[in-house]
Design goal:
Blueprint: H1 5-20, E1 26-27, H2 28-38, H3 47-59, E2 63-69, E3 75-81, H4 83-107
Antiparallel strand pairs: 1-3, 2-3
Helix pairs in contact: 1-3, 2-3
Length: 110
């Protein structure tokens, strides 16, 4: 049986979250909105997948969360990429690019 888009996304979600946080700290909803925006609304990550990924990255020391007031005035936890997270992102992006080349070679021209 083939893998669904959700299964494939789950394997890439950590890298996508790290990439999203590379430019600025964001809260969970902001991460989801940025992913939607960057993908022209083709990538919609449900909260049930996003928050476990963010917490996993936080537990591994790749992101750090800090509570702060959001533009609406409500408190929100903003996540920031750590130096360790930047190194992990670089490693994952390099691995992804290598894998993409290999898969492209196997699939051949379309």
């Amino acid at each position: 049986m083939g893998r669904s888009k959700t299964d494939i996304l789950q394997g890439m979600l950590d890298m996508l979250v790290l990439k999203t946080l590379a430019d600025e700290p964001l809260h969970g909803y902001g991460i989801a909105q940025r992913l939607r925006s960057l993908s022209d609304d083709r990538l919609q990550v449900p909260q049930g997948s996003l928050y476990p990924a963010v917490h996993r990255l936080e537990n591994r020391g790749f992101v750090r969360g800090e509570w702060a007031a959001s533009p609406t005035g409500r408190e929100a936890k903003y996540y920031r990429l750590t130096a360790k997270g930047r190194r992990e992102l670089e490693s994952q992006v390099e691995a992804w690019r290598d894998l993409s080349l290999v898969i492209g070679a196997v699939l051949g021209p379309s």
